[in-house]
Amino acid sequence: MNANIFNRRIQKLQEIMAEKGIDIGLVFDRENLIYFGDIEQVECMVIIIPQEGKPVGITLWLDMEYARDNCCLEDVRAYVFPRQSLAGSIIEVIQEMGYHDPVIGFERYFVSFGVFDQLRNAFDAAKFVSLAEDIYKLRAVKTAEEIELIKKASRAVCAGMEAAVRVLKPGLKELDIAAEAEYAAMKAGSQGTPFRPQVVSGLRTLTTHPFATEKVIENGEIMLIHIGAKCGGYIAKMCRTAVIGDVPEEQKNIYQIIKQSQIEAIGKLRPGVPVRDVCFAAGEVVEKAGYSKHFLSVIGYGVGLRQSEFYPVIAVNSDAVLEENMVVDVLLPSIYKKGVGGARITDTILITASEPEILTDYSNDLIIV
Fold first, then answer.
1. What is the mean pLDDT of residues 350-366?
2. CATH 3.40.350.10 region(s) of the chain?
3. CB contact burial 52-66 (16+ within 10 A = b; e otherwise)
4. Which CATH class is domain 141-368?
5. Tens of pLDDT along 192-216?
6. Does residue 1 have a pLDDT over 70?
7. pLDDT the model gives residue 3
8. Nearest to residue 351, comparing CAs of 189, 142, 67, 207?
9. Share of the chain above pLDDT 90, in %
10. Could you give the CA distance from residue 63 to residue 270 in angstroms, rounded to a whole number?
11. pTM of structure
12. Proportion of the chain above pLDDT 70, given as a percent
């Protein structure tokens, strides 16, 4: 991407930091290294963003040449482990920037205890604050370049779904199906699955966050195929439901309810719409069908550098409002009714000025095997 994009992102974060009185922002996690630094293939790295002035990157000396060649930052420095540490280098740079008692903003994840421990020994931990929500909000509205990467990932995940459905039959293991899906997605351009493939069957479909195992697929079961793909760090995901042989009619009916619920939710995906209205539209379908007590109040998330971004969260208690060029997933929850629930469906969807664009363009009919 153009270096100006990353400079604008850093400037926007610095404006937020100035408003909130935050002196230093620390960026450790892989997603934000991509977002603020345009660098994918490096671990053990941090970007130090002062409220004013240029950011500084610090990375392991072994990765120094790669980081300088691929990172958009002008100032990238190395630390030599074990003689030096990442935390020690961070402390030196913060003090070099003129801060000796700073308010430091952190992300939601990925700060090791070792780094945190050294930082709190050097600075006042009472002045450590969160920048997580602000960063997620910055990431929520996508550029044209980001959208193109998500579209590429969407095409790859569709190829993975097609491969999974093509080989699906009783007697195979869940992992067999997941392997076919991931291989096909990677052949279509994915850099690998962004989460453990949720290719699960039978009673395990009622587990909240299941993943593929050695379990053998049997007749008379429903099966979820929830997979993702990643391109340039950006993610697309999709879930479809299959029935293997004869299953109770209520299971098939529940899928149709979920499918209609998704249709109603997608119909609300417009700029300016509060996300709670999307939830209410989906929930109304489920309520009329008599399953409201088995349904969740969270039906989707933003999609981007994470498969589930924390802004916007599409939930009934959220104050978030949809904006043009957000990308979201709708609708993953099942109807959690023991014995017959479990069916799910989800797609990756772009919010446009007019009609929402379903990027995971794959049939949403119930798959019959």
1. 97
2. 3-139
3. eeebbbbbbeebbee
4. alpha beta
5. 999 999 999 998 998 888 899 999 9
6. no
7. 82
8. 142
9. 89
10. 43
11. 0.95
12. 100
pLDDT surpassing 70 at residue 283: yes
Q: How far apart are CA 60 and CA 45, in angstroms?
A: 7
Q: Where are the beta strands (DSSP E) in the chain?
A: 24-27, 45-50, 56-60, 76-79, 104-106, 128-130, 198-201, 221-231, 234-244, 298-302, 309-315, 327-330, 347-350, 357-358, 367-368
Average pLDDT, the chain: 95
Cis peptide before 366 (omega within 30 of 0): no
Collect contacts of 359-362 with beta carbons under 8 A, ≥24 apart.
359/150, 359/151, 359/154, 359/236, 359/327, 360/154, 360/157, 360/158, 360/236, 360/237, 360/238, 361/154, 361/158, 362/158, 362/161, 362/162, 362/238, 362/240
AA identity, residue 38: D
The two three-digit tokens of residue 236, written as one number: 């697309």
- Phi, psi torsion values for 303, nearest 5 degrees: -130, 140
Instruction: State pLDDT tens for residues 92-146.
Output: 999 999 999 999 999 988 788 999 999 999 999 999 999 999 999 999 999 999 9
Q: Which residue has the tokens 């052949």?
A: 187
- Identify the residue whose tokens are 């579209």: 151
Distance CA 168, CA 223 (A): 10
Tokens of 257: 């309810």
Which tokens in the block code for residue 222?
A: 């429903």
107, 135 contact by CB (below 8 A): yes
CA 189 to chain centre: 18
Which is the CATH superfamily of the domain at 3-139? Creatinase/prolidase N-terminal domain (3.40.350.10)
Element (H, E) at 257: helix 249-267
